[in-house]
Amino acid sequence: QVRLAESGGASVQAGGSLRLSCAISGYRISFYCVAWFRQAPGKEREGVARINDGVNFYYAEFVKGRFTISKDDRENMLYLQMDDLKPEDTATYFCAISKTETRCRADVNDFQFWGQGTQVTVSS
Question: What is the pLDDT of residues 30-46, one digit of tens each?
């Protein structure tokens, strides 16, 4: 059984930092695209950052220079370091694993396994 468990979400003030973690079990992520998405109330889920093959990194424009995605294939962990947080970063953050080894777009339909999410709240 595949399981993704996010942790690290919290309430912080603007300018603060958080590090999200995603523990993955039941599935080896080495060759797959893994990603962070987020969803704010009343909005669609949107891609934040993705890693494909451990070499190619993709970031949404609104987090470039502030967020860093990383993974540990040996431990089957995915991380998201978030710095200089802004109130508009407030959302539930989800980790996800792609359906194929090659498709890695910021599109929820490219991903087959999802965690339950962790809440990030940034106050001004």
Answer: 889 999 999 999 999 99
